[in-house]
Amino acid sequence: MKISVIIPTYNRANFLLSAINSIKSQTYRIDEIIVVDDGSSDNTKEVLKNQNIKYIFQENKGVSSARNRGIKESKNDWIAFLDSDDIWEKEKIEKHINIHKTNQNIFCSYTDETWNRNGKTIKLKPYQEKEEPTFLNSLRLCKIGVSTFFCHKNIFEKVGYFDEELLVCEDYDLWLRILKDYEIKYINEKLTLKKAGHKNQLSFETKLIDTYRIKSLEKHLNSKYKKEVLNELIYKMEIVLSGAKKHGNTILEKQYTEKLNSIKLSLIK
Hints:
This protein is α/β, with parallel strands linked by helices. It is built from ten helices and nine strands.
């Protein structure tokens, strides 16, 4: 099995080599490393000299665009993702390979992860614990970190790529589209180290994150899970509406009052 690893990056030159070194240190040989530089203004390009990787520069279009560019330019059938501020344990890819050789009808897998802030491990809350994912148990929150994910390239032809219109929650959106029809196998080992607490982390800096999850859920209103999706939409819309009222955002309040009433009407019908 030949593997391409895709690293999207934006102004993270100081983290990038650690990520790349963790790929090169894998016990299973990686055939191709692709770094998609999403318009960095730091010394990213210089840092990558003599690294034996495929370097692609594009004007800043967002992390989804960078990942999609990497997927489309990759030459191998199997794809892994690594954010430029994360690193892998040495046996991560080997563990994926073993899973897929044993389960040839499964095309996606992911591992557990460790979160680290300023050199200290972050203790996860109960709702953040990982498990075997299904469409239904993934409705509430994103269960899968992109840097933990591994899949066959054909999956993107089946369900589509990362949604480039979503500023955040693009991973949550993709996992739901995959899990609607396919299985994602869980590897219960902490094989990815995620670093938190530095600049340019969209999931920490972006406001009203639930509005992006709502956009993702609305894609499934005609699926076999319509009732469960409607209930989750009500839950998330009530959170957004409560926040809008609290902060005096009358435009958002009006928008989500109308959306919430419409959704509740759909359940009655």
